[in-house]
Amino acid sequence: MRNLIAILMTLTLATVMACSHKQESAPEKPMSAKDTVFGDDIRALEKAKGVQDTLNKDKANTDKAIDSATESSNNSAADDSKLPVSTD
Fold first, then answer.
1. What is the residue-wise DSSP string for 24-84?
2. 39 pLDDT above the threshold of 80
3. How far apart are CA 39 and CA 73, in angstroms?
């Protein structure tokens, strides 16, 4: 009888030890922010930044065009000042 109890306790202990062994798994990749509830907001923000970049480029091109037009206007005004003025 003692042998049977010893065998049962040994088997029970072995079963508990086998089942409680924690298996190591590969670490999970962190979830990207776009896959969370904030995904729509993040995409909207990225789109707004793209629009702002486009507007900034267009503004820079417009500023260059205005500067070149202003410079040519100033140059022609400077050329007009060299012309003789009649005092009649």
1. P-PPPPPPPGGGSTTHHHHHHHHHHHHHHHHHHHHHHHHHHHHHHHHHHHHHHHHHHHTS-
2. yes
3. 51
